[in-house]
Write a structure and sequence with these properties.
Length: about 260
C-alpha cells in the first residue's frame, strides 16, 4: 500500500511539473513515448510515467536488497572508506570483485592520536574538547584526506563512528531524508579495529556528558541582522554570532575560525 501510494504521489508530481512547464511555454518531448496534446496522449503519458516511476522504485529496492546481503557477508558496499581505512579486493566471484575495509597505517595513527588527545591531551594540558583538538591538529600541520583543514563535524564523526572499535554500521539512514532507520534494519560489518572497545566506550561516555543538548539552553532574543552579509576580511568566510560573559555580550566572528581554528 505504501509503495503504491508513493507511486501515485510521484506520478501526480510529474504531471504537475509538466503542466507548470507548459504554462511558461515550455514543451516536453520524448523520443520513446507519445507527447501529443490531445486527451488520449495525456492519458497515455500519465500511465507510462507512473509505470516508469514504479519500475524505478522497484529497481532501487532490488539494489538495496543486494547491498544488504553483501554487507551481511562482511563485504564493503561504499566507494570511499572511512578515515583510517582503505578499500581492498577481498575475493573474486565471477566478474565481480568483492571488497573489504583494511586499516590504513598512516591515517590510523592520526585516529589513535585524536582519541588520545580527547582523553589525555598533548602532555602540556589536560583532556581536550573537540574544538581544541581541531585547533591543535590544524596548528600542527595535520590535514584531512583531501588536504583540507580539520573541522568540528568530521572530527566529531571520527570520535563517534563505531567502525573504529571493529563494527561498521551499514544502512543506518534513509538516503533522501537522512533520518535514522529502525535499528533492526542496520547491518553490522566486522572490521579490524583501530581503537580498543573499552577506550571507545569511555570516549562516548565523555561526549555524552559534555553534550550541550543535555543542558538547558540560554534564551537569546533579537534577529542576527548580518547573517549572509558580513564576511571575514582575512579568509572571506561568513561571520557568525558568538556570546561572552554568559550572554552579556554578543559579537560576530569568522565562521571558519570558529569551526577550524585560527589557522583557517
Amino acid at each position: 500500500v505504501h509503495s503504491w501510494s508513493r507511486f501515485a504521489r510521484d506520478a501526480f508530481a510529474m504531471e504537475f511539473n509538466i503542466r507548470r512547464l507548459r504554462k511558461h511555454g515550455i514543451e516536453l518531448f520524448s523520443i520513446t513515448q507519445e507527447s501529443g496534446k490531445d486527451t488520449h496522449s495525456e492519458m497515455v503519458r500519465r500511465l507510462l510515467a507512473g509505470f516508469d516511476e514504479h519500475q524505478s522504485i522497484e529497481n532501487g529496492q532490488h539494489t538495496l536488497r543486494a547491498m544488504q546481503e553483501n554487507a551481511r557477508q562482511g563485504f564493503w558496499n561504499g566507494s570511499r572508506a572511512p578515515y583510517g581505512y582503505c578499500v581492498i579486493a577481498a575475493e573474486q566471484r565471477g566478474a565481480k570483485i568483492k571488497k573489504k575495509l583494511a586499516v590504513d597505517v598512516v591515517e590510523a595513527e592520526i585516529v589513535r592520536m585524536i582519541f588520545r588527545l580527547f582523553r589525555q591531551g598533548d602532555g602540556t594540558s589536560g583532556p581536550m574538547g573537540v574544538k581544541a583538538i581541531v585547533n591543535w591538529l590544524n596548528a600542527n600541520g595535520y590535514r584531512t584526506r583531501q588536504g583540507a583543514n580539520w573541522g568540528i563535524g568530521p572530527l566529531y564523526l571520527i570520535l563517534t563512528r563505531t567502525t573504529y572499535k571493529g563494527m561498521h554500521r551499514f544502512n543506518q539512514k534513509y538516503w533522501k531524508t537522512k533520518q535514522n532507520k529502525p535499528e533492526a534494519d542496520v547491518i553490522g560489518i566486522p572490521v579490524e579495529p583501530i581503537i580498543d572497545e573499552v577506550e571507545f566506550d569511555a570516549v562516548q561516555a565523555l561526549l555524552k556528558a559534555k553534550n550541550p543538548k543535555k543542558i538547558a539552553p540560554r534564551v537569546v532574543t533579537g534577529p542576527i541582522l548580518l547573517t549572509g552579509v558580513a564576511t571575514c576580511a582575512h579568509c572571506g568566510g561568513m561571520m557568525t554570532i558568538r556570546t561572552g560573559k554568559s550572554g552579556r555580550y554578543r559579537y560576530y566572528t569568522c565562521g571558519n575560525a570558529a569551526r577550524m581554528g585560527k589557522t583557517a
